Amino acid sequence: MSELRELKLRRAQAGMNGASPAGDGAPATQASQSARTSRFAQIVRYRHFYLFIAPFFILFGLFGLYPLIFSLYLSFVNWDGLTQMHWVGLANFVQMGSDEILWRSLLNTLIIGLLYVPPMMILAFVFAQLLNAQWLKLKAFYRAAFFLPCVTPMVVIAILFSLIFSTDKGVINYLLGLAHIAAVPWLTSEDWSKISIAILVVWRWTGYNMVLMLAGLQGIPRDYYEAAEVDGASTWQRTWHITLPMMKPVFQFCGLLSLLGTIYMFDEVFVLTNGGPGTSSTNFGLYLFQLSFDDFKFGYASCVAYSVAAFVLIATMVANRLNKRESEEAL
Amino acid sequence: MARPSLKWLAFIVAAGVAAGAAGCASSPQFAANSEPIAANAPASKVHGDISVWSWNIAAQALRNLTPAYNKEYPGVHVDVEMTGSRQQTRFMLALAAGVGAPDISQLQNTDSPHYMATDQLADLTAVASKYQSDFPPSVWRLCTQDGRVYAIPWDIGPCAVFYKRDLFKKYGVDPNKIDTWDDYIAAGRTILSKSGGRTKMMTLGENDIESFYEVLLQENGGQIFDANGDIAIDSPQARQALDVIRRIRQSGIYSDVAAYSAEWLSGFSDDTIASYPGAFWLGGTIKDSVGKGPGAGDWGVFRLPALTPGGLHVANWGGSVLVIPAQCPNKQAAWSFIQYALCTRQGQLTQYRTEDLFPSFLPALKSADVDARDPFFAGQQVGRLFATDVTKIQTLNRTGTWAEATGYVSQDLSHWGATGMPPDEPFLSNLADKMHRRLQTPIAPAATASNAPTARPAAARTST
Prior knowledge:
With 331 residues, chain A is an all-alpha fold. Helix content of chain A is 72%, strand content 1%. In chain A, α4 (47-74) packs across α16 (298-330), α6 (100-131) runs antiparallel to α13 and α7 runs antiparallel to α10. The longest helix of chain A is centred in the last third of the chain and has 33 residues, at 298-330. Chain B is 42% helix and 12% strand. Chain B is built from 19 helices and 11 strands. In chain B, strands 1, 2, 3, 6, 9, 10 and 11 form a 7-stranded mixed beta sheet that branches. A two-stranded antiparallel sheet of chain B has the order 4-5. In chain B, strands 7-8 form a two-stranded parallel sheet. In chain B, α2 (56-72) packs antiparallel against α14, α9 crosses α10 and α17 (402-418) packs antiparallel against α18 (424-439). Chain B is globular.
């Protein structure tokens, strides 16, 4: 804090002395001259700096921008990756309307999202609160333990969960059996497959969200709680009136990540059910993968990907606008 | 500066003209590479480096082969790359890019039609057509398109049933008396009831129904596509196959453990599963998994049950081919390796002996090696059993959209299995409609004609 004040003071002094903020006391005439020279000349003059930042832009252009534009073009063609492309205009977009598997996969995506996001957020918040508590020992251990699932290789998780969810030999059904509850066909029934995926996702990503929320909790100044405590606020009131409102940006960030994670979720579904039984757990990410790398329909797959991305973008913008209006009204 | 580039251009033009004159079917963009492969090039004149993409034990088998190959072809250096998962996808991307493909690549034989349809594979007709009669007609068909040869069959996957002798003995079931799937189900019921429900006859999870369905369809000559590539899935043969699956599932003799899951593999070593219908290569998986553990030396194999008495006892499941991409710069060397590995007895038998790849090369199947008694299977002549009737295998007609089409069949069969297997009539016609809509392929008229509700499975069509 004191450093910052000192810096401000120094800047103010420098201003009074009449030196330009750009530093090293360049005369004003020279500065106006360089403003007149063309932008290109400036780029040439500062080429070393541009060279230093170039790698990112080159890589982004090659592996980010180019594929992005190319796949927009692909949306208007039929292409199997090998033979000639055929320009089909808007036919791919029309085809989407009657693609029952696409609509099924989007519905499945929505259901899986609704099944896992609320419990994951609540659990992440509760764990973050617990880890933030003063009385807890071994905090680093718990933090690492909760974070571990999201850095564990998916292959390991796949083997583990296929054993956990096994109908005949699985550990969950064994425990249910002890409680005299009939075995649940976790992965072999169309009703349960989405729930199994939701459980796996909650297990895998709660720790990640917890770490984000923990950072958010630690960013809330202690003064607020102390002041509230002096005013006689209960623990519950402090959580409700201080923690939750202060955490809103973190919740929004976690929510956005979960939204994107839900739409493009792939490996969890791929390894656990591969979309089955039937298409009961085929989600959007998996369907996109099947379209491109099983069916080799790169044109149609690009078209579907672009359409859904556009829809998500618009939906997010609308949500943001509503959010903004709401918070403005609140003020 | 101009001279070399002109020379290069002239070469392309000359090669293009030559290719055109020869009526070569390869696409003009690779004309520069398409020097015809000489049928009788002397081994000493063939030289260069070739790279091969392959996977798993297949790659190992080719590596085992290279020393012997190099005795005949000392001038060629072979580099077999074990490329790991989704090799075929990377191969396709390399073909699309026009660069980066290996000189030889392995493909699953079911996928080869899709790659052949792209015109990006070297035409091997001139040098390979003489081998046609050395391979079962069913696999050779997967290597040709419009009468041109683009791939050479490697291994095949003739099917039979692997079983645990001790369990069959314990519950009084004689595997030699299992002739039809009816017998198999009856035996399964015996084992199930005598074991108090503990031992299931086989595994047949929802997602695995499709592979099993393809095996059954080959036994009764059914098809997914007819010879013209039209959808022919709604047929009496399909109903007969579905009927077997339904009876297996309804009798409760199956376990719904997914194939290749950890518990499926653990089933090899305990008493929960009595038998595994599968292809020859499954034996390798069983041996690897069991090792010297419980059950080793006590396994057996009996022939695939037929759909009806006197019906076929063979079907093919899996297998692969080798291809040379059109962009390969040294096709002569690549061909010499394929020829040695796949079109000679010693080549195919070395791979059979060392890595259990079942030869598709018929002269190799006549060898005494195939009669060897396998101690893992209690001294049974397993190779000979699998080699029986391989020439009678009836193939399914593959199309360029095969992977996508079987994806829909698999989806619907899995749904059908998970939802209690409703009657076939709407199921098969709905599936045909779905395929028609999504593949934009017509439904074969014959299949619609046999749609009449009275049509029941006729006696299985046999080619004996």
